[in-house]
Model the fold of this input.
Amino acid sequence: MESEISGADLSVSIGGLRLKNPVMTASGTFGYAKEFEPYVNLHRLGAVVVKGISLEPRAGNPPPRIVETSCGMLNAIGLENVGVDRFISEKMESLQAVTVPVVVNILGDTVNEYREIAERLVDVEGVAAIEVNISCPNVKKGGVAFGTVPEMAAAVTAAVKKVSSVPVIVKLSPNVTDVTNIARAVEDGGADAVSLINTLIGMAVDLRSRRPALANVIGGLSGPAIKPVALRMVYQVAQTVSIPVIGIGGIETAEDVLEFMLAGATAVQIGTANFVNPRASEEAVEGLARYVTEQKLISIREMIGALVLS
Amino acid sequence: MSQFQEKTQIIRFEQLSSDIVRLTLDSPDIASRAKPGQFVMVKAGEGRDPLLRRPFSISQTSNERHFQILFKVVGSGTSILAHYRVGEYLSVLGPLGNGYQVDCDDDNCLVGGGMGIAPLLFLGKWLVRVCPQNPPLVVIGARTAAELSPLVKDFEELGLRVHTATDDGSLGHHGFVIDVLKTINLGSSSRMHVCGPYPMMAAMHLFCKERGLSCQVSMETHMACGMGACLGCIVPSRKGVYAHACSDGPVFDAKELVWKVK
Done:
């Protein structure tokens, strides 16, 4: 399968999950995949990560939820989703038709909620891996985000890992003093891989109305503006852990993908770029194949962590 | 539903007033499938700032191969778009959204304000073709005559009678379109197709509710993708907490929405 484009070997492996190429779509930017079918050949992607799922349905935040900023956007969607039960009954069928691995992103307010969602996803056909969003506030610990305290991040990871039969990827928050501490904690908690970065917390003000641009006041910054921060954190985490690292943050083109791989990423996720160019992920795959062929690489895996430092 | 991502060539550039521009784009795929009330997402410039596409109602199609967008220069995206020229290409996604529901047995009324008039021209043209025996009533308004006149001409070319209102009284009624509607004897089978600023649509909702008239509104919101992925474009709805303007709309039955009336 992996040799379908110009014979280039683009395949990578994430904690036992084999991808025919390293390009995944980021949670919350690709709907439930079928929204992108008019534009993208889904079967050519490495994997699809679906919108974050909670135990109960969530309506999300009031509008305005998004605002554009320089080379990026802020969002405060508020984790709107249909809940795990409706996800399984209404969304899985079309996802089962997607021939590439489907990764289900999950989120919760308590460790038990994460565990329960993961339990309901066990034996659901078509779930290739679980990605755990630990940027959510822990309601039992005064709303401190799970992803900002190593012990809490490890506890969520261990709880999900214990019940899951598929690889568990933990998605790290960049809104911490030292991301390597969290990465080490989730690795110790049993994570099969880490993905980073989630959005950077930011804010925008509308001077004319003197109001915050988002109803939620603060939101998550994404897009090309955050790429240097993401690259730095991916580099640091790849130096720290021995599990695979999935790079996320401002990735749009094959060149971006390759830069993250040099910094240590085994795979990547394309996020905000999907909104601007729905074909971005497929075009990145095409670009990677060209690069591997032009550079006469045996495999794209040669690029992982191959940053030249001297 | 068929949607396309295309590089479309600009075949006509019209400066309708000091800050209103109309572009005619060449895209048989989009133009031949578009329905009145649907929209496109347009990328202004090739760069990353502005990053996101901008939503525009399709304001007219012709010959199953051309479609138009109409906009006022208000921000970074529209000012870049206003500097494009004939022969250049724009990346466009579409057609997106649901469009207006049309029944020839209704007395269709097109009620528009400002740039919200854009999709109503497409709808007017459609109604003239599909329901020739029952042409729609047109009531449109804007700030001044300079903004409104070029659009009035387009409706008149369709053979439609146009009622107008301007904020400054420079064309038609001095005031709001709703004042004009109050002077017209509207039958009980009237169906309002509305697009304009939020306060106008909220007022139209109340106007129609009081008279038991059907009212369809086209909602404009912040929107990143236009295709149901970003979940940014919500409008408060009575069916569930929020509806999504891009995939559930942009046209809604006004009764289904929750209106904030000042």
About this structure: The radius of gyration of chain B is 17 Å. Chain B has six helices and 16 strands.
